[in-house]
Amino acid sequence: MWKISGTSKGRAFTAMELLLVDEEGVGITASIGQKDLTKFVDFLVEGRCYMIKKFQVSRQARKLNAVPNSQTIFFTSWTVVEELPTEFSANVPLYMFNFVDFEDLDRKDRKGHGLVDVIGQLTVIHPVVQTSGLNGPSIRRSVELRDLSDRLLPITLWGEHATSFEDEFLIETISKDEPVVIIFAGMQVKTYLGSITCGSGSATKWYMNIDIPEVNAFRASLQGRSSEVLLLPGDGDAAAGATDEATSNRKTVSDLLSLDPHDNNGVRFTCDAKIKEIDVSNGWWYKGCSKCKRGVKATLEGFECTNCDDMKPMIVPSYKLNVVIEDITGRTKIFLFGGVAEQVVRRTAAELVEESSSNQILLPASLRSLVGRRYVFQVGISEQTFRTGQLCFQARKVFAAPAVAGERSSGAGSSVQDPPGGSSTTGNSGNQTGDGDSRLTNVPLDPEGASTPPPEHHTSTASKPSSAKGKEVPSGAPEESGYVALSSM
Length: 489
Hints:
Blueprint: E1 2-5, E2 13-21, E3 27-33, H1 37-40, E4 50-53, E5 56-59, E6 71-74, E7 80-83, H2 86-89, E8 116-125, E9 129-133, E10 136-146, E11 152-158, H3 160-173, E12 181-192, E13 195-199, E14 205-208, H4 213-220, E15 230-231, H5 253-257, H6 261-264, E16 269-279, E17 285-289, E18 297-299, E19 302-304, E20 315-327, E21 330-337, H7 338-345, H8 349-355, H9 365-368, E22 374-381, H10 384-388, E23 393-400, E24 440-441
Parallel strand pairs: 3-6, 8-15, 11-13, 21-23
Antiparallel strand pairs: 1-2, 2-3, 4-7, 5-6, 8-10, 8-12, 9-10, 10-11, 12-13, 12-14, 16-20, 16-22, 16-24, 17-20, 18-19, 20-21, 22-23
Family: Belongs to the replication factor A protein 1 family.
Pfam family, one: REPA_OB_2
InterPro entries: Euk_RPA1_DBD_C (IPR047192), NA-bd_OB-fold (IPR012340), Rep_factor-A_C (IPR013955), REPA_OB_2 (IPR031657), RFA1B/D_OB_1st (IPR003871)
């Protein structure tokens, strides 16, 4: 599922499109117009099966069709959609791809006609680049894929795809020494400086190391090859308009709270502030599926992952920190998910749950020690802003704060690399504040206002049909959940 915007800045959605696949593995695009969006947008969920009745079918020349099918289903005001029980959907494939070989991407009859799916080994991740143009600021990131013939393909990710990719990659690959076989689905083929590249769009999804025959066969063919992924740091010269991530778009807390979310959606800002409190009213970790990192759903027999359609998923704890930051102008809440929190704490959520307690509202010492520490937070406007109507922010990276007079230096470097000390805090050893609010942890600063560096972060992504697209976020957690990026289309 993905939404289509009718404006250049994506401020208003005018339609939603779906990729549907039947039990025979045949796919078709479906379109829901703006007037019918409210009827279906909250009912339809990626990865689930439905019986759809009373719709129109039209043969249209679609420039950006997700599947090689000339027919399109159009929902109407009379369309009826009924969700099918699990037993009826067991034979319907969860994924569907139409892979195109790297060498075939430059075929003239493919340029600008239809979306493509590509599979390859992830080899390089370039830093985010921000530029300004006639249509306002833009954000992009390049990554590189290699096929089994050692051909390289540059991929350009735009907007939210650019900002979320690194986090999802890090979460997905932490502690794993294996090649990253990735599928980019719904990509647009373009020519840039005489070379073929693929660019992301509203329909783009990615999948890392998923368990399907095409990925398993590709992985088996990589035996003996390096599994390293080169994560390039920003150096200020990566491209025209690239900026120092730790200082660009610097805002005070007051400045952040005055932003228009529509004008600044997808833009990153930095804020030099201290962690004042950690709100644990909704817990500091969630139960996630080990495959997709989405939140799992409790059942009478245990848990199930509605994203993977796994009735007995392996559960992995993942961070979801709701942090109150403060500077001299005010305070606001920001979310730290998955990899961002993980590299600040320098411990996985699973380790802390195992060592301390599975109680989701009882903060371990490693998290309590973050309170009172000063960092430079790189934040963006969270998608929850548009769902709740309240301005909220999500941390994309965390950098060491510059030293000030009377404050211990947190060390040099652009991002935090050292773990915060677990024993330097004072006050209660529990998670209760001085005013008795058991949902917040508020630990006094040490006499010297200690500040410790933080780090960056991580997440989770023949022949032709294999079936269903989606880069999704935990269903039982906020949309941004463990990926640090969240935004499922």
